[in-house]
Amino acid sequence: AFLELSGPSEIKGVWKDSVTLPCAYVPVEDLVQQTLTWTVVHDKGSGAIIRRDDSGDQILLSEYRDRVSIPKDAPGNVSLLILSLEISDKGTYTCQVTWRDSNNSLIAKEITISLEVVKVAATKPIIRAAEPGLTLPAGASTSLRCEAGGSPPISYRWFRRGPAGTAELLSSGAELAWPSLRPSDSGTYFCEAHNR
């Protein structure tokens, strides 16, 4: 029986976002997965992050507690999901699997993935409107929503265009809402997104 672990040699994750470090194999009939261990080498040192065996999953490095998991019901998919990436998560990760064959001997394989953690600038925001065209009767309620991509946290500010190109700051927050519109609310609105 032929077994190979597959996965990329390098992954870029976005700071504060989640990332999956792919590691997978095609299950072979007579081979039973015994142990799965993810280890890391990075600036803070090295060690085993998580280990899966018959007794379940154990998280061994406290800095990854509540932040890592491996798919439960996907035979052969032994990828590592890391939540809310820290800059210090950058490092070299090793996925190591052992199997037992029908003669009770063990086979071990491993692959190594290097993880970069990058910060991404906020993208130009888009405005989502509840209704297209936004010609509305007085008394109606409506809202505008500002959305941008990039490394969280992203903060938003809403402005209304004033006379002679001035801009009046209305609020901070992704959503601008009017419970009951008045004719004087007519105008041009714009939003700004920024992150660190």
TrEMBL record:
Residues 17-114, 125-196 form the Ig-like domain. GO terms for molecular function: complement component C3b binding. One of its GO terms (biological process) is negative regulation of complement activation, alternative pathway. SUPFAM superfamilies: Immunoglobulin. Coiled coil: none annotated. Pfam families: Ig_3 (PF13927), V-set (PF07686). PROSITE patterns: IG_LIKE. PANTHER family: V-SET AND IMMUNOGLOBULIN DOMAIN CONTAINING 4 (PTHR15466), V-SET AND IMMUNOGLOBULIN DOMAIN-CONTAINING PROTEIN 4 (PTHR15466:SF2). This is VSIG4 protein.
